[in-house]
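Pilot study result, target chain (151 residues):
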Amino acid sequence: MAEQARARHILVETEEEAKAVIERLDKGDDFAVLAEELSTDTGSGAQGGDLGFVPRGRFVEVVDEAVFTLPIGEISEPIQSDFGWHVIEVLEREERELSPTDYRTAQRQAYNDWLTEARAGANVQDFWTAQKVPRDNGPTIPTVPAQPAQQ
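Predicted structure:
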């Protein structure tokens, strides 16, 4: 079980566009309609911006932080990420079973976090680098010198 949030978002290219989206929402425009009309995230936009239930760590850090701290039902201020500007609304949060994919992702992340911590706290060196380990080009076939033809 893990805390998961169900949120929706509208992704636009500029901060000004994000502010205009928020103004329209404040005036009563429907979030889902605006997401379909304006979002550059065509996957969620076609679903009214709905991102479904997701566990922590699924989104880029700034979006993840908003999804898990924003009060339910409140519209975020514009949030910038590498993808553009997000306007987010959290619909609900609850403890839910992780999907098999999310479970594997969480396992992988936990292992990577542990490994990073272990490397930082110990004298762990990585000797498996391209400079130190020759590339295996497969078996070589020895060449036999040609014999002069017998006459």
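One observation from the pilot: The helical segments are 15-26, 31-38, 42-45, 61-69, 100-121. A full batch analysis is planned for the follow-on phase.
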